[in-house]
TrEMBL record:
Compartments reported by the entry: Endoplasmic reticulum
Organism placement in taxonomy: Eukaryota, Metazoa, Chordata, Craniata, Vertebrata
Name used for this protein in its record: Reticulocalbin-1 isoform 1
Family to which the UniProt record says this protein belongs: Belongs to the CREC family.
Gene name of the encoded protein: RCN1
Species per Swiss-Prot/TrEMBL record: Panthera tigris altaica
Top-level taxon of origin: Eukaryota
Signal sequence, start to end: 1-29
Length: 331
């Protein structure tokens, strides 16, 4: 997922904490390989490999999550079917005994986003200093910038100093965008939107704005082709451009610059980094329904799913199976 760029990386909470330990020169490093900025929700769910038609690995990862689909052959087929049955009950949101494509798509999206909530859970205690299950802006600011604010003299490198000075108001702006009720206190959902803005519709404009700020070196509010390429590739003096850079220049002219004015505005940047052209979760849900729907009524019974259990879960054992007895708000 595209979170590249020096400032954008530091803008994430964990990146900011790690930045305190980085050598001064690390903040100045420029990319020498291609950088991907395109943000795809359900980021763990990519294109279906052509060779996966028989192994069902893609289906397993989509349905269970990549991490939970790595451990195989620890369950018997009977145990797998039993746990799959419990999953089916949870997917059937309206309890009508059928799993629709929409319900399956919603489930897949939740599974693919689970890593986000796991990440938030891991760092939550580092920011929730008063243990009230909320994180105020002041708590976050002190946890992330407290050392810098209290010891500015230790940041003698002008670039390091300016980077932290720049990131503080930028993080505050993002925090306010995530704080839907405007009370300067983030709930878990609001803090999740703060740390992972690309996954929330109301945060998309922040993603676009931060991307523009990262790449727009001349400060004119637009991205020209050179700025677009410079974000992906550091050109060595007198060295030839790789073929992919030449291709990206063509992409810029033909597909990125929609109005053909030689630069990208915010709408064109959004079209670039937040594509809406393909929903992998929708496609996978349709695939699973099509392959399992014996009576072709475009919805699945539990029996139809269990009859095709190998496509959904195979014989793989997952931690997720153990989690079925737990109450996961994030799923």
């Amino acid at each position: 997922m595209a979170r590249g760029g020096r400032d954008r990386l530091l803008g994430l909470a964990l990146g900011l904490l790690l930045a305190l330990a980085l050598a001064p020169g690390a903040l100045r490093a420029k990319p020498t390989v291609r950088k991907e900025r395109v943000v795809r929700p359900d980021s763990e769910l990519g294109e279906r490999p052509a060779e996966d038609n028989q192994s069902f690995q893609y289906d397993h990862e989509a349905f269970l999550g990549k991490e939970d689909s790595k451990t195989f052959d620890q369950l018997t087929s009977e145990e797998s079917k039993e746990r799959l049955g419990k999953i089916v009950d949870r997917i059937d949101n309206d309890g009508d005994g059928f799993v629709t494509t929409e319900e399956l798509k919603t489930w897949i999206k939740r599974v693919q986003r689970r890593y986000i909530y796991d990440n938030v859970a891991k760092v939550w205690k580092d920011y929730d200093r008063d243990k009230d299950d909320k994180i105020s802006w002041e708590e976050y600011k002190q946890a992330t910038y407290g050392y810098y604010l209290g010891n500015p003299e230790e940041f003698q490198d002008p670039l390091d100093h300016n980077t932290f000075k720049k990131m503080l108001p930028r993080d505050e702006r993002r925090f306010k965008a995530a704080d839907l009720d405007g009370d300067q206190i983030a709930t878990r959902e609001e803090f999740t939107a703060f740390l992972h803005p690309e996954e929330f519709e109301h945060m998309k404009e922040i993603v676009v704005l931060e991307t523009l700020e990262d790449i727009d070196k001349n400060g004119d509010g637009f991205l020209d082709q050179d700025e677009y390429i410079a974000d992906m590739f550091s050109h060595e003096e007198n060295g030839p451009e790789p073929d992919w850079v030449v291709s990206e220049r063509e992409q810029f002219n033909e597909f990125r610059d929609l109005n053909k004015d030689g630069k990208l505005d915010k709408d064109e940047i959004r079209h670039w980094i937040l594509p809406q052209d393909y929903d992998h979760a929708q496609a996978e849900a349709r695939h699973l329904v099509y392959e399992s729907d014996k009576n072709k009524d475009e919805k699945l019974t539990k029996e139809e799913i269990l009859d095709n259990w190998n496509m959904f879960v195979g014989s793989q054992a997952t931690n997720y199976g153990e989690d079925l007895t737990k109450n996961h708000d994030e799923l």
